[in-house]
Amino acid sequence: MSRKASTRHVAEQETDALSGDDLGRRFTRLAGVITELRARCPWTAALTHQSLLEYLIEEAYEVVETVEAGHTGVSDAAEFSGELGDVLFQVLLHARLQEEAGHFGIGEVLDALTAKMIRRNPHVFAPDGSLRAATTDDPAEIERAWDEVKKQEKPERTSPLDGIPAGLPALLLAAKALDRARRAGISVPPLSEPPSDPHPQTGGPAPAWRTGEELGDHLFDVVRQAQEQGLDAEAALRAAVRRFSTRLDGSGTLPAGPQGF
User: So what CATH class is 3-153?
Assistant: First the structure.
């Protein structure tokens, strides 16, 4: 057997292990339950893509809460699997609505996701889906390859920030924007001068945050001060990200300074 045939055989074996007959039956059964709920349950039948959004967001945040609480061990299996199932239920409901409209079904969702993961991970998969004999251990190289494939898939996106959901919470939105800029090789200068106040104990320069707890306390205090001044910290940060996006150019630099963007 050739190396290429061998790697394809391994890929097929691993795929069978992940999506064998038993798993297929379980998934088909769940899809059937959702179909019957849409047909027989008035509450489920009345759902729309728009009305489902609040549940999708709620269930996603419950997964976040479960993970942050550390409830991912063996003793938490029922809780964690239940939360993941709630998110999966939302995905299946949206797919079912599209199937009823004659657009696509969960099968197309699965096929598209499988193809995307193969396409965007060329360090693992060959274009035909077979496993590569050798891969890379360099995360930066993997990141570059992922971004390059995304550019090919979405040529209409001209800015590194295109495609970031505008509805993200402000801190996450800012983090995503800065990460995209970093990955595009764009230097983002500070918007304000470093603090000049001396350290209250040593008299030297104020140190950077040493722990996530210190940073969290600082952010909490920023929100407190904003409220005391009648300002909305969430809206202010979101506006800063919008200004950042507007001023971002293709030169690889972003002029800024104490005056802000």
Answer: mainly alpha
